Every structure is written in structure tokens, then in C-alpha cells.
Amino acid sequence: MSLNPSPEETPGLRRRFVVSSIIIAGVFFILALRLWFLQVLGVEHYRDLSERNRIRYVAIEAPRGAVFDRHGALLVDNRPAFTVSALRQEVGDRENLFATLSALLDVDEEKLAERWKEGQRLPRYRPLPLLEDVGREAMEKVQENSVDLPGILVEVKPFRDYPHGELAAHLTGYLGEVTEEELGKSSFEGYRSGEMVGKTALERMFEDRLRGTAGQKRIEVNVRGRELRQVTTRSPLPGQSLYLTIDTNLQKAAEEALGDQAGAAVALDVNNGEVLAFVSRPTFDPAWFARGITSDEWRELIDNPRRPMTNKALRGQYPPGSTFKMIVALAALEAGTATPSTTFTCNGSFQLNKSFEYRCWKKRGHGKVDLHKAIKESCDVWFYRVGLEAGIDRISDAATRMGLGQKTGFPFGAERSGLIPTRAWKKKRFGTSWYDGETVISAIGQGFVLTTPLQLATMTAALANGGTVWKPQIVQKIVDLEGATEWMLKPEKLNEAAWPKAAIAAVQNAMESVVNDVGGTAWRSRLEKVRFSGKTGTAQVIRRQDDDEEELEDDEIPYRYRDHALFVSYAPAKNPQIAIAVVVEHGSHGSSAAAPVAKAMYDAYFKDVSDNEEPEKVVFRD
Amino acid sequence: MFDRRLITNFNWTYVLLILLIAVIGIANMYSATSSWTTAAQPVYVKQFYWLGLGLVIIVLVCLLDYRHLEYLSFPLYGGNLLLLILVLAVGKTSMGATRWISLAGFNVQPSEIMKIVIIIALARFFSDKAHLRGFSLKELIAPGLLLAVPALLIMKQPDLGTALLVLCIGGTMALFAGIQRNAVVFLGLTGFAAAGGGWFLLHNYQKQRIMTFLNPERDPLGAGYHIIQSKIAVGSGGIDGMGFMKGTQSQLSFLPERHTDFAFSVFAEEWGLIGCLLLLSLYCLIVIWGLHIALRSNDRFGMYLAIGVSAMLFWHIVVNLGMVIGLLPVVGVPLPLFSYGGTSMVTTMTGVGLLMNVSMRRFMF
């Protein structure tokens, strides 16, 4: 026990207490000052940070605009689909979770792990999609077992739906996730990683219209990203709807008629260029892309020798073969180098300069042939001579005026222009001058001449209407959410070919005979209820060796060496409405492979016309 | 044996202040942990039990006249040192540190006990040796060793926070006892040098903490996360706060350790500057009142005891608050009466008991 006096009475100690108290108060004052600094001066900054901690702005995908046909029938739509996703922060034991999930839904664990890896590029708070479009039953299973599946949730997302399956897939195109590369471009500003965008055809060209405006959910989340409250919502604005000029029944008939054959068919309204059918076969199922195509499926499509991913109507370039003969006829008639009554005798071949022999497809010859017969029975010799007489310049000019050798301006970027050769082109391309022999084979649509099915249809429509080349158009109108028309098709003339009336009439007349008169190359494809006019064509894939005299039956020739079959036509023969071009790759003969497709299409298109008589069944070979 | 005057002289107001802070703390804990859904007993209820125990401890500590501690001080100190050595030898390891030891079925944290025992031991030493001239460097060797040995043992566990606190408590008491000017300068310089050299002795996580204190953005999701989230919580409280149970940082769990070391952040978010200043005043009051008790004590041992306890409270409060509002690095120091935990409660209440003991016996000789 100390004997010192109490501290209160010791002045030195007393001072220490006073100083200490002041120091303590000073330290607390500094703490208070700091609090003032944080809570008064910094409050806005920190409240902002706090908001950012807990508020997430999540986009709500806008339903993409629907696609309808010309009669308002639905072609492409959206449907709600269930997606099993993972909230990464809430997933503890991942392997265990995947095991449970794979047992529950019968999916591969590795596939889940793969999706997990792929999804890491998404922002952490966004749910990572593991299984897309799982179906109601699977969704219910997940919901029921949610206790065993921590971090797993089922989201409802709009999915692109194709009520007609693969119908018109090359026209509508397909969707795919926006790529990292695209996200970097200014045209994809406002897109989010993982969003579906149009990759080809209409889906791509009208992306801006179809996409709509994403809505926004303002959600409050806790530290693990679990959604607690939806604070406010801005509803998504669905995209605009496309009404196409397509007639679904006609499209369907064409796709069915072509079936698994490789080829294309294009139908146009001859009076305004509206595309009534646009077919490329074989095709693909766009639904595969909507849910994310697997590499096996992709391989299957890419490895198919009939190239289902190629839009043959737009990008397939084929020698027009005999379907080119109308052009040659018009060129000659206009120039006066031939008249409808110009007559030659066809004995099966044509001699040029005594050294080259060009054969008619009909070995024994057609005998005496005038324009009408030359088109009706597709005599090559008549056209060799008439073509040579008219010259390549006139033929090229006529073809160009009818829309060949150039892009039609179809709204897909991938269109091919085909080729109409000229002297200048050849000089530039090969550095050599033009030979007469080349004119001869050009006259039957061989040699350098190349056309796309779309061009052939455009040309045929112009033949049918007397020479007006209409731009083929596919979109009839674009309609917004309220039903207001945002855009309306206006027929556009590409050219007015202005053929002499007599010339076009002679050609039309001959084309009518091709189908409707005995001996016409497409006679067996005629329809009783609708009289249509047409022209068959056979395009050589490889030049047959003339020495190779052994005549093979069609099915003895290997598939890839068989000729392409073509048929161009319009109906009705008088007052035409619709023109159709059909190409069947390696179909051998226009009459046997391509014309029946057109026939099926007319049958469907004119379904309201009463079908009184069964067409006569006559077996005929050309 | 029992003097009636003890009850009359008991400092009821001080204990009421302590109770007030503790009750605010429990309410705050209720808010901080409201999002927890566990079947076990809620944390705030448990804290109530600890508070009850704390009050019992105050009474128990008051029963024995503090003057008896003067004789017990060195045996207590020796025993505690032994425990600290035992911890290092056979202690329980959890989360990379060995702090606990099992004694008679109880889990005991000898470093925590040392906070009190060092006060008693140094009070004994200074009350014997202090003179108004102040200690010279040579005279400081003995108390220096008294302080350094347990501090080193604690640092070895490693428990930097507690070691620093023990040093701060001892240092404060020594400063108060008086140190000659040249000795202060010398100690300051060597301390500075030691801090530089000590950097290399620090564990990686300790260096990490200091680095992130200096720049929290350096690791916003790792070591800097605590500081950043705590500052966000405190700052977004504003002047009048978000309201009880309405602090988003705490309610949505962005704030870590929000019922223990960062309990004050929750309070600051929900009650704003006004609430904070009130709480700060209460804390300031109990520290200065502690000093006042020292001033009014009628012997040197009691005075140093009271100074030691005040220093202990002061340093806990300042280090914790400094950490929470981003003035000091993150060291795991609880806020007395506010952070959840039995250990902190027992230590604090033992100290408060000692203060009350000194306070109520100042009239007796």
C-alpha cells in the first residue's frame, strides 16, 4: 500500500490527467471527423457504391418479331422455353451438383461441365445456361428437387419457333449467339453476350426490325447474387413482324416435290416480281440453331454432299441449257436475223467450218424445224444456226436485258450474279478473242453461260408479261406491334426489255406447245385444270466426250456426272400470273426431273380451279 | 466483513453506461444477423447471456478488495506467462493460429487474460517505482521486459492484434508513470527502426493486411474487400442513417464479419452520423471517466489499475473504429460491448469490475 498522497493532490499527476483527457478527446474527435468525412461529404459516393453492390440491371429479352406468309399464315414465331441455369455464386460442390442433375434429367455430366466452361464469359451475376429448352417434364423435375440442386434455377426465355419445321429455312435463315467479334462492332452496339441474333437470310437482313427493344429488370440482389426483389421493370418491346410474299401452300408443294433431291425452285408473280415460293433443297432445320447446334449436327450438315447449307436458289450457278433458247430466239427475231418461219433441216448435228461438229440432243434429228418446233422439241441445231447468225453480242444483250448475268438485288448479301459472256469479258478474262464455236454452244445455254434459279425465274416472268423485268421481292410489308405498317412493298422494274410484240408472241406460243402439245418436251407434265407454258433444259455438268459413244442409261451415270435438269414455266398460258423456275441438280433431264416439280407447284397454286379431268397418262421420253 | 458503504459507493452510473452500450450493441447485432436463418440460437440471444455473465463478473471482481491483487500480481503474471508458453506447446490450432488451450474443461485464451494481468503487474511495478522525475532508459528495462516477454509470446501464436494491444496498454501506463524526455525520444526512434525491421518478421497475411490498408483497391475482392465494404456501409449511412434493419449493405450480407469486428459498420449505416456521434460520446465518456476514477483513487496501485483498464478500453475502441472507418489496417480487434463474443465480454467486464473496485473503495483506508 502506497503512502503517497492521492493523485488529485499531486500537481504533476493532475497535469498528466488533464493532458491525457485532452488527448483522448482529441482522438475521439479525429474519429468523429473521419465519420463526418465519410457520412456527410462521402454519402453520395458511398450510396452509389452501395447501390451498385445490390442493384443489378438485367435485360429482359424482347420477343423477336414473327414472320408470316402473304396470307398471314405463321412461318416463324416464338414460344416460351425452359432453360436450366446455374447461379454460379450459389453452386457449392459442382461435381456433386452435376451428378445429381445428370441423374435427374438423363444428360451427360461432361456436357454440363462443357457448358459450364463455355458460360464463364458471361457476367458472374448472370445465370449460366446449362440445358436449353428442356421441356415441361424436366422443368418440373428440377423444381421438385430444387433442395438437392443448390444454385440451379429454371428460366423462361422466348425461343424461336418454326411451326412448319424446315419449310423455307433458306429464306428465313437461322439464329445464333452473337459472337465476340460481332460484339466489338458498332452495328452490334447494345447487344449482350449470349444474345441470339439473325445469322443468315431474312433473320440477318432484318435483324434491326425483328429484334425489338430489350426490357429491363431492376433487381436487388444479395452478396451471392440471389435475386431478392424486382424493383422496377421496363417491359420489352417485341420486334416488328415481317409479312413475306411467300405462299405457304406453294412453298410446301415445291419442297415436297423436290424432296431430297438437290435443287432449287423459285416462283414469282409475273406482274410485280413478288416471290411466291423460294426453295433450296435439301435444307436444314432452323430449330437446331435456335437452341444451339451441336458439333455433330453441324458436321452432318456440312458433310452432306448435297450441301443443305447452300442457298441454291440464290447462290447456285447453273448453265441454263435449253431454257436459254428463248433469249436467243428473241435476240434473232428482234435483229431480223431470223423469223418465226426460218426453217432448217436438223439431221442430228451441225457442222461449223467443216471441222467442228455440234450435236443435237436428238441423234436422229428433228427433220424440218422452224422456231415453233425448235422450242417445242428443243432442237439444238436450229439454235446453233440462228444463234451463230445473230451473234454473241446480240445474245448477250438480250440476256442482260432480261436480267441475266447480274444480281437481281435480292435482299440477301450472298446473291451470285451468274455470267453472260461477251467478247470484252472473254478478252479480259482469258486474253483471247471470241470464237464462233463459243457462240454456237452459248446459243443452247452451255459454255460460259451461268444463271441462278432466281434469275431464271425473273427471266421467265419477263417472258410471260411481255418483257418487263421485275425485281424479285420477298417482303410484302413490315408491321409494328400495334399493327401499323412500317414498310410496304413497292414493285420495282429492273428493266423494260421492249421486245417486238410479234417476237414475244411467237416465243410464248412455242412455250405453250412445249407443255400442251403432243411432242412437246414437257407434254407429260401438263395440267388439265391450268394450261401452263414452259421450256425444259438440260445442263451438262461435264462435257461428254464425243468419242465416248457408249450410251449410258441415266442411272448408270455416277450421280455427280449426271446433267442438271431445268424447267422454266409460267401459268396460265394466257394472262399469266405466276412464273416458276426449277433446277434439279444431277436430275438428268428437265422434262423428267424438273417439270414435274413445277407441275406439282401449279397444282397447289391453282387448287381452287376445279380439277375436272385427270390428265391423260402418256409415257413419253424426250 | 461486508461493508454497507460499498453499495452506496458503487458507481451505478458507470455500470449503467456500460449496460446502455451493451444493449445498443445487442440491438445492432439483432439487425446485423436478421437475415440468418439457422435453427440454432440467434446470436443476439447468446450475447444476452454473455452480458449476464459479464455483470456477474463485475460483481465478483468487486467483491475482492483490489489491494489484495497487489500481492497476487506477480504470481498471476508468472502463471499467465506459463499458460502462454503452454499454448505454444500444446494449444489448439484454428485458422492458422494457436490461441486456445483447454483448462479444466474450459477453453481459455491466455493472451486475452494477459490484457488484464499485464495491467495488474505493471500497476504493481509502477506504483512501487514511479517518481515524478520520470523513468530513465535504464529504469525502463525491467518494466520493458515485463511487457515484451508476453507480447513476443503472443506474437508467436500469431496474434498480432492482441500483442499490439498488450504493448499499447503497457506503453500507455508507462507514459503515464512518466518517462524522461531523452528516453522517450530514444524509444521512439528505436520503435520506428523496429517497425521497419519487424516488417520482415511479419507473416504474409499480416503484410497483406497492411498493404491493403494502404491501398484497399489493390485487392477489392480479397483482402481489401473488408475495408471497402465497411467504408461503403459507413458512408452510405449519411447523417441520419438508413434506419434500423434497413441498412442494405448489412441486410444483404455485403458486409463481412458484421456481427463481430465490423458491428460498428452496421450501426453506422443504419443510424448515420447522429447515431455514431452518440455512440462515440458514450465510449469517450467511459474512457475519460475511467481516468477520472484513477485520478480520484487514493493509492498509486489503484490509480495505475484504473489507468490500465482505461487504456485497454481506449485502445480497443480506437483500433476497432479506426479499422472499420478505414483509418487503420484490419487487425482483428473487437469493439468492447459491441462485437459478438464471450471472450471480449469477459475481458471487458473484468476490466470494468476492476474500475468499479477501485472506484468504490476510494473512501476507505
Features:
A: 622 residues, Penicillin-binding protein 2a (Domain 2), Beta-lactamase, 2 domains, 23 strands, B: 365 residues, mainly alpha, three-stranded antiparallel β-sheet, 14 helices, 3 strands
Explain this structure.
The complex is a heterodimer of chains A (622) and B (365). Chain A has 622 residues and is an alpha+beta fold. Chain A has two domains: 147 residues, Alpha-Beta Complex (Penicillin-binding protein 2a (Domain 2)), CATH 3.90.1310.10; 358 residues, DD-peptidase/beta-lactamase superfamily (Beta-lactamase, 3-Layer(aba) Sandwich). Chain A is 35% helix and 20% strand. In chain A, strands 2, 3, 4, 5, 10, 18 and 19 form a seven-stranded mixed beta sheet that branches. The C terminus of chain A is likely disordered. Helices cover 68% and strands 4% of the residues of chain B. Chain B has a three-stranded antiparallel beta sheet. In chain B, a hairpin with a 2-residue loop joins strand 1 and strand 2. In chain B, helix 2 packs antiparallel against helix 3, helix 2 runs antiparallel to helix 12 and helix 5 packs parallel to helix 14. The longest helix of chain B has 34 residues. The mean pLDDT of chain B is 87. Chains A and B meet through helix 1 and helix 2 of A and helix 10, helix 12 and helix 13 of B.
In the predicted model, the low-confidence regions of chain A spanning at least 5 consecutive residues are: 544-549, 611-622
Radius of gyration of chain A: 36 Å
Backbone CA Rg of chain B: 21 Å
Task: Tell me which oligomeric state these chains represent.
Answer: heterodimer
CATH superfamily of the largest domain in chain A: DD-peptidase/beta-lactamase superfamily
The major beta sheet of chain B can be summarized as: 3 strands, antiparallel
Extract low-pLDDT stretches of chain B.
none
Strand content of chain B: under 5%
Q: What proportion of the residues of chain A form beta strands (DSSP E)?
A: 15-25%
